[in-house]
């Protein structure tokens, strides 16, 4: 996989800088017959090109466990890791251990007194989507979940996520709300963090002290070129997915980022998540298949980002 440094960055608004570049992105997008979902919100951008468009408006909606991308991002900003480092040891407290027994939310099977490296807990946060681990990391970093949530909201404001409100570290609260466009801004930043980028690309892992194999809830990682990011689902939120994939154009690999929110909201989390995976999969297939021709047709030659 190409490092993020191999891809040209977008401007702070999620588009390449300048009106000319924005016009080029719009022209390329017009040549793509993207199968936008008929419900919820969606947004897609290509690094080095810009926005391919968005659908569904900008009214904030619950985002469920997509929230954990911001949780991981804040933790890594406060406690940076180099890829390959396990990081400081963190002790599982009684609260996280009790929450591991919950039958009403996703959790990681940890026991009081166990000690895990920071990287291990990030994997338990992002792959099986452990809500108890999200809150444990929040307490470890800031002393309380409330103090950590304040950091999340300050970070969101700093990234220009003006229609986002975090009310918890896990996303279980339906009051944590955002938009596809806002979450796309976070996706860009997340893919610039080497450790976060490496974790969200993992299909599975094993962690000492945790029984069995830890499997990623993002089943789209089985598709060629998909390299992240995070699922989220609940009855009020429906199915949500922040995704990252590569589209090839000749020898060039373009990083494509997308967010799909509120798929089959009001149904079961399982049904909503499957709808989000299906909708995102169709978008990824279309971009991977048609982007090279759209770029060539607009520029009159193969484009290298």
Describe the structure.
- The chain has one domain: Beta-lactamase (3-Layer(aba) Sandwich), CATH 3.40.710.
- Helices cover 37% and strands 19% of the residues.
- α4 (118-126) packs antiparallel against α5 (131-142) and α5 crosses α6.
- It has 305 residues and is of the alpha+beta class.
- β1 and β2 (50-55) form a beta hairpin.
- The chain has a 5-stranded antiparallel sheet, sandwiched between helices. It has a two-stranded antiparallel ribbon with strand order 3-6.
- The chain contains 9 helices and 11 strands.
- It has helices spanning 19-30, 67-78, 94-99, 118-126, 131-142, 145-158, 180-190, 194-200, 269-299, and strands at residues 41-46, 50-55, 61-62, 89-91, 115-117, 177-178, 204-205, 214-215, 226-234, 238-249, 252-263.
- The protein starts with 18 loop residues before the first helix and ends in a 6-residue tail after the last helix.
Determine the number of helices (DSSP H or I, runs of at least 4 residues). Answer: 9
Q: Structural class, please?
A: alpha+beta
Instruction: Write down the domain tally.
Output: 1
Mean pLDDT: 91
Question: Can you tell me the overall shape?
Answer: globular
At CATH level 2, the architecture is: 3-Layer(aba) Sandwich
Task: Tell me the radius of gyration.
Answer: 19 Å
As a percent range, the share of strand residues is 15-25%
CATH superfamily: DD-peptidase/beta-lactamase superfamily
**What is the percent of helical residues?**
25-40%
**Order of strands across the main sheet:** 2-1-11-10-9
Report the sheet with the most strands, covering strand number, pairing sense and barrel closure: 5 strands, antiparallel
In the predicted model, the low-confidence regions spanning at least 5 consecutive residues are: 1-17, 301-305
Counting DSSP E segments of at least 2 residues, the number of strands comes to 11
The CATH class designation is: Alpha Beta
Helix and strand string, N-terminal first? HEEEHEHEHHHEHHEEEEEH
* CATH domain topology: Beta-lactamase
